[in-house]
Amino acid sequence: MRVLRWTITAAVIAFLVAPLLVVAIVSINQNRYMDFPPDGFSFHWYAELLNDTGWRNAITRSLVIAAGSSAIAVLIATPLAYVLRAYDVRLAPLFYSLGILPFMLPPVISAIGAQVFWLSTGYFQRIENVIVSHGIFFSTLPLVTISLAMDQMDRSLGEAARTLGANPRTTFRTITLPLLLPSIITGYAAAFVLSLNEYIIAFLVAGFAVETLPIKVFNSLRYGFTPTIAAVAVVFILIAATVFTMFAIFGNLLRFLGADPGVLDHDR
Amino acid sequence: MSDRRKPGRGAYLVLAFPLAMLLIFFVAPFAIMIAYSFYRRIQGGFYEPAFDLGSWKRLFEPVFLDRAAFSIGISLLAGAVCIAVAFPFTFFLTRMRRRPHVALLILVLSALSLSEVIVGFAWSVLLGRAAGISNIVVWLGLMDEPRAYQPGFLAVLLGLSYIAFPFCVLTLYPPLSRLDREVTEAAQTLGASPWRTFRTVVVPIMRPTLVAGFLLVFVFTLGSYLIASILGRPQHWTLSVFISDQASFNANVPFAAAMALFLTVLSLVVVGIVMLLESRTRSAT
Q1: Could you read off the pLDDT of A223-232 as tens digits, one per residue?
Q2: Phi/psi zone of residue A258: left (φ > 0), alpha (ψ -120 to 50 degrees), beta?
Q3: Spatial distance between the Cα atoms of A143 and A28, rounded to a whole number of angstroms
Q4: pTM recorded for the entire structure
Q5: Would you state the pLDDT for residue B1?
Q6: Do A231 and A109 belong to one domain?
Q7: Would the CB atoms of A229 and B121 count as touching at under 8 Å?
């Protein structure tokens, strides 16, 4: 069993790390061809990422889309999660499913839906469309994180505030919202990272006019390889790893992922 | 829950914004998709409002059935691969000490957040001739010259498994983490070997979770567009590639809408089964 444990763990780590490692090596290769072993060492392709206007614009566009769409996602998720958990709303399961469903279906379905929707409005191939459609698609993530936080929240705090004369709005602003803030930030960050990486919805909604970073990477792959793609990949991996490491340090990553609370404390 | 308050007008007012957004940008698109699927296609990539069953009839043509069968097949395979690896891995993961435990979870989450286009690119390098694994094998003297393993069926399967694996781990993680240690300890005290404990105690308890994880991978990989188009030849393209290409390059939006609705029904059935299984697990524990 011990041998099996090590073999499987090592194999999974190798499987998850191998492509990342190869991409990292290619990204610092000196010449523009992929060769093995690498020819020399250079940060040239990272510099190109910042100097080339095409890549720089794609990065800016993707960051704008990610920032805007995650904001929309949080604006949808926070009131939905709050009211459905704090009040006894009729049809609550239906409303909650409505918020979960976009993410549960294969993205290509949402992508076609978004495409025909924007086509029929006549307002097509705009960056705003991508922001809104991403916002809807990724609202599931903050909805889940905020609902979890609502479940774990100590209800007596809100009741105490009300007993002391605070109206619902004041209670929400001074008690509930500050307590929900970590889960709102977590949901925002998760939506941000996934929006940054999303391809098919962005492509079908505005792919011919708005070239996001994943679309540009895919287009560059079609027209031949450039090590800049590898540099993009490394930057993305570093962003994701940093965000999740921050969760682990400042938040409770294990509990967020649903670990057994009793197990977590015994070897801290 | 009894401690929940009755909602007043204010609560419904707060609900109005999110619900309106979801209705306009998520539910309405489905209605429009249904309408579009009946539109008649006319020359030059345009279409006109009509009640035309042509797009729905095309769902029964061999081209589509072929793609659908291939997609379902490869997604089922990816589900099997993911479960077979992710289940023991997650089981060991939940029994690790905190530091490696958190480090591995960060690795899994980082892999999860990778764009499909980057996963596809990374594996195409790794399985390619120029800078791939076969170069290492050649360097070790085990092979004469490097070869390319992509594009191909196995490359697509590997890529799909890679993007779905983190989701699979995260689905199995909570129930495996909550699995009562006393159960496995009891089995071992009674003389069962660790392997026997795993097979006769852990697997049966986890069966609904395993099925749920398997079906989630199935739905998830069914929707993958980039992996198949980067790592596969046209005969390895999945339903998503077919649908998206109909919608963008061939500009046959009505047919794409009909196929997307077909995929929706298929996924909803699968998601329904998952939810049923999950509620059964919850009531069992």
Answers
A1: 777 788 888 8
A2: left
A3: 40
A4: 0.84
A5: 42
A6: no
A7: yes
